[in-house]
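Re: weekly structure request thread

Next one in the queue (236 aa):
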Amino acid sequence: MISSKKAFKAFNDDRLPDAADLLRRAIDLDPKEQTRFYLGEVYASQVVPNLATPDNLQNANLAIEQCGMILKSHPDLIVVLKMEASLYLNTARPDEARILERSAQILDARDAEIPYTIGAIDWREAYKNSVDLLDTEGLPERSDGNTAKSPTLCRKFLEKNASVLDDALTNLSRAVDINPDYEEALTYLSLVYRRKADLHCNDAGAIGADLEQADTWAKKAAEARVRAEVKRTAKK
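Done, posted below.
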């Protein structure tokens, strides 16, 4: 009989191929969802974020395969949705990750990590759009409204980034509403407002207002970081 304890021991001893083999054999005999989840975790633990080698992508896809099999029978398992979303995110497939995070959000509206993750994905998309658009006019990214861009380019910024940034603000604000000391969400709110400053087509007042918001949220993130450090120190 194949024991899950043997697989866990192999996993804890960093013998990941052995752990995967034991779990695959266990699934062949009795395909329980829990065993599939453990096998997915073994594959996922070997995935290096943003590494596009065949072995890395294979481990990610094998983990995704196990998640998909579980979700066919139990589509409301948030832990599986989030694991699969993380795998997509770590292998440069943000659109798939965002779809899964939105599904998880429907199931648990009080999990601050979910809207934070969606907002972070949105910001990364907007940032890439910004860099790519600026490059068409040979301009560096300055995070100050990028006022040197042409009016034509500014309109392209609006087309590409306006709705993405609105979604980012909605989700990051939701994360902070749930957890006011969510330092990472506060930091991303600051970054999102710097991207919003790109959209005003040289309206100095509007650009200044967004940059002021960016500074305000950066300050709140720093304050949250200090509070967290005080709590950690107090526990020692």
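The chain has a mean pLDDT of 92. The radius of gyration is 22 Å.
Next request, please.
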